[in-house]
Model the fold of this input.
Amino acid sequence: MNVTLCSIPAEAANMVQRRKRSEGHRSIIPKIAITSLNSWAIKNGFPNCKFYDIDMLYPSDEEIKNFFIKNPTDIVGLSAVVSTSYTQVKRISKIIKEVNKKTLIVCGGYITAAANTVLRKTLVDVCVVGDGEIAWIGLLKLVKENLESKVVTEDLLKIKGIAVLDDNGNLQFSGYGQTLPGCEMTFPDFEYLKSGLDGNDEAMKNYFRPFWKNEEFSMDSRSYEKHRQPMMMSIFTSKGCVAKCTFCQRGSKGYTVYDLSKLEAYIKHVKENYNVGFLYVDDENFGSNRKYAYQVAELFHKYDFLWWAGGVRCSTITEADVIHYKKNGCCGLCYGIESGSQTMLDVMEKKITVEDVKRSVNACYDNGLYSPLVRFIVGMPGESMRTCRESGQLIGELTARIGVSPGLTFGNTDIPYAAPLIGTPLYEYGNQLGLIGQNLDEDEKYLELTSNSAIFKRYYLNFNGAPMSEVIFWDMLVFLEATREWVKRTKNKVLNQEWENKFILAMEIQGRNPHVKAKQKKVQIMGSGGETKDVSFSNYFITNFLKQYVVFNTTIAKLPRFIVEPAVRYLLYFEFLIQKYFLKDKHNLHTVATTNKKIRSKIRIREEELDPTKTSQKDRSLRTIVGKKMKKFNNTKVKETISSLTAGP
Done:
């Protein structure tokens, strides 16, 4: 039996790469899902699965076709990490079937929240939903037993984690896949990853970057000690998350940590063989298991690594934790702040408070650790002018405490707008309102629409119900209010020159990023990171003017809100109208008829529905709001099955 595993690019099919895999401040994250599938297959008595790293190589249609002609396969596993990979899955599955119609194509990853569409609109045969290792072994056994015949649907559905169309064309789902215990989880095998590069060994370098390309490490003086090994790489020390944020695309439940002896062997190996001295911890939820996190930090220190954690919950970190982590080589912690409004934190089901944010961020800066303040988003249902001002006020308060202005703190960074990816309560909310996904063709159109999109303003789909003049003002309102609060709190206060110099260095390093560099050469567009094409200066000249001269201007911040806010808001709206009607801008914000032309104030969540004096925190979660709406519908079994996928676990 011939088996192949393939990584799938996140870029839309036939699109120019956003940037080369060798570019950017971050190294490519090792394909941990694929290496885990292969390791579990070997442990269960199967030979090595052949690997084809389509994501890294970014081959043409002809190159993919030639690969499968030279490497005949009975079963192919497509690892599509996010739903933005839909058009790639459609393209690649078509090529595979052109070579051999009998090949069983299995798709895994978060895209399988859209299993109904994937199975009906692409040539994928089976979707694995949730953790895939145990389900993958079940599939390999079935295919091995049925090499000369078709796999029976009833047998497939005996495996947990399978979504498939039955003989009558109905979607069947056996429930979310089982999770491996932590003692069985493995770390990436770089020799196996190298085997997927089809002879292009040079591409292995993309898994590593010099530390000085990354602002987080460059801001820490310990990074420049002469004995340091210079390369940085990404690593996971845990899997999953203890939270279920309503905008977050998840494929499984739970939180699992790795075996420490395996972690020690792994970091020792990469240090000795790949000259790695810096680790970027890519956990979704570092620190939730405090005892384990302390042991991980001590292990990193034992082997003289400096490290950074990119996904930390504010509610789990104390000042004692920060001190321990720094003593053991930590250069910084990045918290998922999302909002300075308790209302919005509750809608997102963050299960943290604004006070948690202040306490955890201040603990870092009080102890000399960098913690970026850019993890904010706007645009969720319930967002309003009030909630945006509250986010701005939190930013202003935190930056005043640090002693660095909001304009310098945000540097080249934009405030993201919420993206309703399939597999989230946010997506399900839009579906219930009739804004998206009312039939199969609309589902596919939506997946195509969100392919190659990003979390920037111009890609925004308005499920909030706010008028467009308000929507395009939210990010700028946050900046205006942050500057206003900063001015108020820094009057007669000496600023922190040391941190200011570090943030200036961070901006310089960000400027080396091809996305930002291109933006600066042409024009500083809010959220230009997702594209490589040039944009005319005239498209965003008002946005650029406002960001450069107005929203971070300390003199303007002293003027009354009733003068500044309407002026900025309607200047932005004027720019939007020019983009839409005269320049014919093709981004979602300007063209998506399925949402923006149907916006009505009646879909907007009312303030009283989110009033903390009248509702509980659970009541204010978008998950609860979606659940209540679901009860009003008389859904069929098929619709319930689809919803159980599209709303996430």
